[in-house]
Amino acid sequence: MAVKQPGLEQYKTQLGLGFLDAPQKPILPPPPCLEILPSEVSSSVKYTVEPVDLGGLTLLKGRVSTREVFNLSNCDLIPGKYEGGLKLWEGSLDLVKTLQKEVQNEQLLLPGKRVLELGCGHGLPGIFTGFEGAAVIHFQDFNAEVLRCLTIPNVNANLLKKSQTLATDAREWNIDAEFRFFAGDWSEVHQILPCTHTNVKDQNCSPVLDQSVGYDIILMAETVYSVSALPHLYELIKKCLNRPNGVLYMAAKKHYFGVGGGSRRFLSVVEKDGKLSFIRYISIRQW
Q1: What gap in Å lies between CA 103 and CA 110, rounded to an integer?
Q2: CATH for 3-24+35-285?
Q3: pLDDT in tens, 171-201
Q4: Considering only CA atoms, which of 215, 185, 181 is closest in space to residue 198?
Q5: Using the 8-state DSSP alphabet, how is residue 61 labeled?
Q6: Residue-range domain boundaries for the chain
Q7: Terminal CA-to-CA distance of the chain, rounded, Å?
Q8: Is cis: bond before 244, omega within 30 of 0?
Q9: Which of left, alpha, beta for 106 (phi over 0: left; psi -120 to 50: alpha)?
């Protein structure tokens, strides 16, 4: 398995994240796995939007209050309750920039592809693939509240037809793609994701696509911070990624202080198992 690191000749100084000093293991059982419909977008939480410039590409990112959504203040992680989805992590922006560069260099072809963004939060990488012609874009986050209060509003802000003020149906977005949103823990969410090897009889992916099973592209940023969660994440990827041509894009730190996770630990899990040799490459942002 080749590891590709596009345009990343120098790594940033490795920094610790204070929120990762929290306990590794969830103190609560995971929430139920649910599909969140666009019509379930929250109207009770204040959502503000601002532009973010990504090297000539401008996307809109939302801002909501963690206190208002989860009754939490000055906290980016409560294992088993809130997994940091309301914060825009640096790796997410790096991932968009990498995707943009690969599209420009014709190293990545997105038209007609099935895309899954794991731990999506703001969902900017997935939104970018919609602009570039992906046919299916599915977003997953641990918390349903993140999808209702932030991810769906972000898709609205970036893709809404000018005649609309709020979308409650995917047909009101100005891109002809399938956008769907799924909440749940990585150990269980494969049960409701349509384009997995376990759900082939139930998949509702676009009929214009070929009959191969799985997502063509999986995106994830800052998802490998917890050692205890890595096995579940890796097993989910194996259940979801198209074979033999699936591509996984990951943006992560080499190491996350306080929990011991990071890109190095994740890659060691992949290499030890040896079952993902069908991946063409993994693109990593690590610092």
Answers
A1: 8
A2: 3.40.50.150
A3: 556 678 899 999 999 999 999 999 998 765 4
A4: 215
A5: E
A6: 3-24+35-285
A7: 21
A8: yes
A9: left
